[in-house]
Amino acid sequence: THGHVFGVDEDRYLLFFTNKHGYGNWAKVRAEIRACPRFKFDYFLRSLNATDLGKRCETLMREATKELTELERRMANQEEQRKKLGDEVKEQVASTEKVARDAAIANGTATDAEHAAAEAEAEKAESSSTSNGLSAGPPSGSSNGGRSAMPAHIHNTAEAAAIAERRARLFLEKQRQDK
Predict the structure, then answer these.
(1) Separation CA 151–CA 171 (nearest Å)
(2) Dihedral sign, CA of 136, 138, 97, 154?
(3) φ, ψ for residue 155, nearest 5 deg
(4) Alpha carbons 169 and 69: distance in angstroms, whole number
(5) Could you read off the pLDDT of 113-127 as tens digits, one per residue?
(6) Helices and strands (H, E) in the chain, number of each type
(7) Residues 6 or more apart from 161 whose CB is under 8 A from it?
């Protein structure tokens, strides 16, 4: 090619004609280039032999393959990040809902559905930890009955209610800020 820089149009037509006639049919690609009115005065391109045109097409295809591979890798990374972010958001929502439910239970303002959800969650936790050989119940001497997510050292119901109420207020305040 002796220092000649192929243009975008030349490359596009070379790939088009390669696709039309099939890989390796460089003589047919050369004939198409020579017959194309677009390249009537492009003496460099018209003067290339079939082997040189084939080398250029192979170079273009290698570069296109590299670009495609890189694009697929980026898309896979983006999808992985999107999934990871979605999982984190789901975990945060579940945690926030649990805190709000625990606060409502501690305050005595919980609905029957919230009580049922808390009991189902406690049963789920109990069944998963008993399958691991762990005790799922509250520590001995604890009076919370396993109904709230308060730390084990909190024995006072009023103290537990105050903590749950504080958590619920923070949750509601954060929701208002997000809107």
Answers:
(1) 19
(2) negative
(3) -110, -20
(4) 50
(5) 666 676 767 666 666
(6) 6, 0
(7) 106, 107
